[in-house]
Amino acid sequence: MPASSLRRLLDDIGTVDATGIEERVAHYPTRSIKKQAKTFGLKLAVSMVDLTTLEGKDTPGKIASLCRKALCPHPEGDLPRVAAVCVYPSMVRHAVPHVQGTGVRIASVATAFPSGQAPLKTRLAEVRQAVADGADEIDMVINRGAFLAGEFAQMQDEIAAVVEACGESTLKVILETSELETYDNIRAASFLAMRVIRPGDFIKTSTGKTSANATLGNQQVMLDAIRDHFLATGVEIAMKPAGGIKNAKQALQFLVAVKETLGDAWLRPSRYRFGASSLLNDLLRQLETQRTGAYQAPWTFTEDSSGY
User: Fold this and answer.
1) Residue 107 maps to a domain
2) pLDDT in tens, 17-58
3) Which ranges form a coiled coil (predicted)?
4) What residues contact residue 269 under an 8 Å CB cut-off, 6+ apart?
5) Burial of 56: CB neighbours in 10 Å, binned 0-12, 13-18, 19+
6) Distance between CA atoms of 61 and 82, rounded to whole angstroms?
7) 259 belongs to the catalytic site
8) pLDDT for residue 253
9) Known catalytic residue at 240
10) Which of 136, 184, 204, 282 is an active site residue?
């Protein structure tokens, strides 16, 4: 990346104290959350899940099963539905009929996910088709090549074009933090995205398709950026960590970070999501343990809603 482009941006938004970030996030796992507070946190996490399947072998039947799980995570207990079902664009039309009118949203990855390596015209056409098929939310990937080359205007212009193509659908902008390599780059990319998206849109850590995904560290950099942007502009941007969050213990640590950085106003599905496939089952296991006092085996909960 041309050093001058990044330097000018960081002079404007500030740099990241990497050591300070690591020290801060090291304290989140030490927070003690027990009994009623733990149950509240686990249910809150369930309500924030974007239940996701992004496989080449996805079928309409698998999507229907996932939607049933989204609507009824567990037949016993007072549990919320998940926030959304996230699928490839070709699967949107198969998912919509199963959740229409329920409050569960349909999200779709787009813009040549996960690489983003397609002509802009093709990426925008994919977004428009997913929205036309009923997607309530679009998860796009930024042009990492443009960012790393210091072509910030190109990156922002492409995001702005996707915003327009989304219409009324919510946009989640995926930074792919592992490919940005440094905390300063993650902060810079966060600000570039936030300056062109709308209030209520999201910035998101990862596609879940690289070797490194969401961590407490890269989330903290993004949460701090959201806070600083909000304090400067009053614009509320939402957050989505994705990939690598597989158990309830991790999810609670990520929520502690949100509460301590952004406050209770961000502890709701409209401002915070988990991109996950296996996380939901562990949340359900922990909630059942809280309810019955008996620890549940990993196979207690299945992918769909037909077996518990």
Assistant:
1) yes
2) 999 999 999 999 999 898 899 999 999 999 999 999 999 999
3) none
4) 47, 48, 83
5) exposed
6) 19
7) no
8) 98
9) yes
10) 204
In a domain, 302, yes or no: no
Q: Which domain holds residue 146?
A: 3-292
Share of the chain above pLDDT 70, in %: 95
Residues of the chain with pLDDT under 70: 1-2, 77, 297-308
Q: What is the distance between the alpha carbons of residues 251 and 289, in angstroms, rounded to a whole number?
A: 16
Q: Is 43 a catalytic residue?
A: no
pLDDT at 298: 67
Spatial separation of the C-alpha atoms in residues 37 and 75, rounded to whole Å:
22
Pick the catalytic residue from 43, 69, 172, 240.
Answer: 240
For residue 255, being part of any structural domain is answered with yes
The whole-angstrom separation of Cα 209 and Cα 113 is 9
Number of domains in the chain: 1
Work out the angle between the directed axes of helices 183-194 and 152-166 (0-180°, nearest 10).
Answer: 50
Catalytic residue among 139, 184, 201, 224: 139
Please indicate, yes or no, if residue 306 is contained in any of the structural domains.
no
Q: What is the pLDDT of residue 193?
A: 98
How does pLDDT run across 190-205, given as a tens digit for each residue?
999 999 999 999 999 9
| Residue 293, pLDDT score | 75
Residue 13 C-beta-side C-alpha neighbours within 13 Å:
30
